[in-house]
Amino acid sequence: MTAVLPLPTPWNVDQAIVAGGDHHLVVIRFGRPSSTACAAQDRVLAAVAEQVASFADVYTVDITRVTEFNAEYQLVNDTSIMFFFAGRHIRCDCGTGEKRWISWVVESEEVLKEILETVWRGAGYGLEIVDGPEEY
Fold first, then answer.
1. How far apart are the first and last CA of the chain?
2. Which of 24, 91, 106, 115 stands 20 to 30 A from 135 (CA)?
3. Helix ranges (DSSP H) in 3-136
4. Cα-Cα-Cα-Cα dihedral sign, residues 108, 133, 13, 62
């Protein structure tokens, strides 16, 4: 089973982003694990991690412990999923008006897999902003 790995330091976050290379999408959930929204999102991420392991690596960052990215990425939500490909931040437009991250709980495994695959394919074509599979 592929695990969702926690990134305990800023160095680990940077290394994960770089390690994805040109073929793997790096999915990082920044959030507060003590919140119910974050815990719910983590359950869905854990459920899909093995299914997307061929093209995505999934990580979590506790923004109450690793605070160095909070200002840079404006991390204020209980859960925010961000995407990186080839060391670049990839944005996803899911119709919510916010493209930098997904800040709501994606409750469906199928929907999350669809979003991850869409972002991965778009990033592979060199897109920095990917249109989500549908509006949410």
1. 29
2. 24
3. 10-19, 36-49, 109-124
4. negative
Per-residue pLDDT of the chain (136 residues; tens, 9 = 90+): 568 999 999 999 999 999 988 899 999 999 999 999 999 999 999 999 999 999 999 999 999 999 999 999 999 999 999 999 999 999 998 776 667 889 999 999 999 999 999 999 999 999 999 987 765 5
Q: Look at the block and give the residue holding tokens 């506790």.
A: 62
Answer for the pair 98, 82: CB distance below 8 angstroms, yes or no. no
**Rounded (10°) CA dihedral 133, 92, 119, 68:** -150
How far apart, in whole angstroms, are the C-alpha atoms of residue 13 and residue 59? Answer: 9
Domains of the chain: 5-130 (3.40.30.10)
In this structure, what token pair is assigned to residue 61? 């960052």
Beta strand ranges found along 52-122 (DSSP E): 56-62, 79-85, 88-93
Distance of CA 45 to the CA centre of its chain: 9
